[in-house]
């Protein structure tokens, strides 16, 4: 593993090991030069391949012919920011153990271990690779959609970006509520060459797998989202019996009215705007009338999933879902005024109905009185017959 350059008398040692540490002496005639070789070895757990939230354990070992110095160790991540890991060492100062907690996909890249000592003077930088296979999405992403719209839910993996050469598998599940049973929508696998394959698993749930999408992306398309399509969509990947996951919560909004059709003059309609699940504290629903005043604004209360507004005049109303003062989605509901003749017809029908009800009431009263009189006459005749039978007499007119 060593060779000497005959022109400049340099000694080259390849594949350096901890046991190579020591004092090297060069003798040339009466001249003697000694050099102390200090060797460091840095190892990283799992060969530097991690999933999100896992812990990387690093071991720095040193060896030299002199008493081992007390090292000052600093870590820099892929963005050249200083990282302070948990540090422990043995009594001999030979081995240092460092723990990097809760790695994220954004931590992938080349890290640097900076080793420093004043006596002997050591100023060494040791680069090492960290690869975290995961999602570029947030841990929990919330997506809003309006009823009957087209929705595409996407999970962006980083296996191409970090050149992850090992194969892994995964699946996409959906459940309407946290406590509900999960339904598998599709599964996928990525080969060691980075080839991605997907298989549709559910035939009951209406969704499509988009043909065109960015590389390293798992996606589903809901061509006409329904109110009951809301819920949690969870993408999970598995690598060497370890798992990582990312969720997208789909919230669907719809608008309706308690009565459908044109609004008659003098009548009132209630407009309803609701979402499929309670909103977070930083979000709310808002009804407002187009070109209206501040009085034509109705806001939902905290954590409410529905807001109603009473409307007595024609106009266009918009319902907005607002998160952190940013309007995420909107739906409009036009309230149309009924033609005048419809109002007259409705008024006439109301008056006619009232007259009909009054006439029926009078008829019922007259019929009741007549029936009561017939009943009284029948009782009198029954009593007369009973009286004649009891006396058994017959009176003849002379």
From TrEMBL:
Recorded hits in Pfam families, A to Z, give: CD4-extracel, Tcell_CD4_C
Ig-like domain residues are: 266-330
Task: Show the stretches that span the lipid bilayer.
Answer: 341-371
Q: Which UniProt keywords apply?
A: Membrane, Transmembrane, Transmembrane helix
Q: Report the Gene3D superfamilies cross-referenced here.
A: Immunoglobulins, transmembrane domain of human cd4
Which superkingdom is the protein from? Eukaryota
State the protein's name.
T-cell surface glycoprotein CD4
């Amino acid at each position: 593993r060593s060779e000497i350059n005959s022109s400049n008398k340099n000694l080259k040692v390849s594949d350096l090991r901890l046991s190579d540490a020591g004092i090297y002496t060069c003798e040339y005639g009466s001249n003697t030069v000694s050099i102390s070789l200090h060797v460091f070895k840095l190892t990283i757990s799992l060969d530097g391949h991690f999933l999100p939230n896992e812990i990387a354990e690093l071991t720095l070992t040193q060896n030299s012919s002199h008493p081992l110095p007390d090292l000052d160790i600093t870590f820099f991540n892929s963005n050249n920011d200083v990282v302070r890991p948990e540090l422990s060492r043995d009594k001999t100062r030979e081995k240092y153990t460092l723990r990097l907690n809760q790695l994220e996909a954004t931590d992938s890249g080349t890290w640097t271990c900076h080793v420093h000592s004043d006596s002997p003077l050591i100023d060494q930088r040791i680069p090492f690779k960290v690869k975290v296979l995961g999602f570029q999405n947030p841990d929990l992403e919330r997506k809003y959609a309006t009823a009957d719209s087209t929705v595409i839910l996407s999970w962006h993996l980083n296996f191409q970006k970090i050149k992850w050469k090992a194969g892994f598998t995964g699946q996409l599940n959906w459940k309407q509520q946290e406590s509900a049973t999960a339904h598998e929508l599709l599964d996928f696998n990525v080969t060691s060459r980075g080839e991605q394959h997907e298989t549709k698993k559910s035939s009951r749930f209406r969704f499509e797998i988009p043909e065109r999408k960015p590389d390293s992306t798992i996606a589903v398309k809901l061509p006409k989202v329904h109110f009951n399509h809301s819920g949690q969509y969870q993408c999970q990947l598995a690598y060497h019996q370890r798992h990582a996951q990312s969720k997208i919560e789909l919230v669907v909004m719809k608008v309706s009215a308690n009565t459908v059709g044109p609004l008659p003059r003098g009548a009132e309609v209630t407009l309803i705007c609701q979402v499929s699940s309670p909103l977070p504290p930083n979000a709310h629903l808002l009804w407002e009338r187009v070109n209206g005043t501040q009085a034509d604004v109705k806001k939902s209360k905290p954590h409410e999933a529905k807001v109603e507004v009473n409307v007595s005049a024609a106009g266009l109303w918009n319902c907005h879902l607002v998160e952190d003062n940013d309007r995420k989605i909107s739906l409009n509901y036009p309230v149309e005024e009924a033609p005048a003749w419809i109002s007259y017809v409705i008024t006439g029908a109301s008056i006619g109905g009232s007259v009909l009800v009054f006439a029926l009431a009078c008829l019922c009263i007259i019929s009741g009185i007549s029936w009561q009189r017939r009943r009284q006459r029948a009782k009198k005749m029954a009593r007369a017959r009973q009286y004649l039978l009891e006396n058994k007499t017959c009176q003849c007119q002379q």
